[in-house]
Structures are given as structure tokens and as C-alpha cells.
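Posting this for the archive.
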Amino acid sequence: NEIFGFACAPVNMGMTEHLQYYLFILNNYVRAADISCEDINHQSDNIDYLETSIKCVELFQWLARHFSGQHFSYDEKALLENKSLAIEKLNNLLSDKIVPNCSSCGKKMLPESEYNICDDCFRERRQRYLHKRRVPTSGSKEGEKNYHSGPPHRSSKANKGSKKKSSFRGTKKRR
């Protein structure tokens, strides 16, 4: 049962400090020595330290629960409080590192940006949109800026004799 318990422990093999902590717990358990968990310095600004320490505390908690506290000495309330403070600090540090990017081009934006698109991409999109919507009227002279909104209208003469069905459902073609 003990071998199986240690074999199933959630150990991150890619994290050296986590693996070393697991071996420390395993060696102390085999020697029947008391196993304690050090407090996390929850005021640290080192993200790697906080992440690793939180994972170590979680491993300690998992093993202590699995082995019903045998050889594990700790105050659960104090352990949870310290871990919560460390998680809160880590979350704050990570959220401070998040810099918004433009959803269109990926350029970094100011943290106080109201929209998720930069001004350059917004202007470009707006120009493309307006260009598609603005079509010169048939009566305009060259060089005049006489525009109307919407698609160009087809004359009724062009549609006469056409056997093409209307693209709009529920509308009948006039002849």
C-alpha cells in the first residue's frame, strides 16, 4: 500500500526541485522521521519560486492525506493560509505580466487600452469597410465625390429576360 501510494503521487518529473522534495519526503517516511512542510515566502516576487513551492505544498498535502497523516506533522489551517497567500501573490505577479496584444496584428498595446485592436488596425479596417460601402453614383462626374451607401443598383433592363433566381428567399422576381 505504501509503495503504491508513493508511486501514484503527483510528482512533476520535469521540475527538479519538486522531484527533490518528493525524495526528501520518501526518505523521511522510510526512516519513520517526522515530515514537515516549510512555509512559503508569500511576499517573494520570484514567480518560479512561488510556482515550485506551491506544487511542493500540494505534494505534501496529497501524501499526508494518502497516508492519513502518518509521519506528517503540520497545522492544516496554517498550511492552507500560507498556500492561499502564495497563490494570491503568484496570481498578482502573473496578471501584472500580462500585456494586451492587438487581436489583428499582435502588436503590444498599452495596459489601459479599452479595445483589443490597435489604432492602426482599426483605421485600416475602417477604411476597407468604408471603401466597400461607398460606391460612386452613376450621375457623378469624374473627380466629384458624389457617393451613396450600399451596393450598386442594377437597372431593371439588365434583369429582364434573365432566368436566374433571386438570391433572396421569399422575394419574387419582377418582370
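Residues 76-97 form the longest helix (22 residues). Residues 47 and 91 are 9 Å apart (CA to CA).
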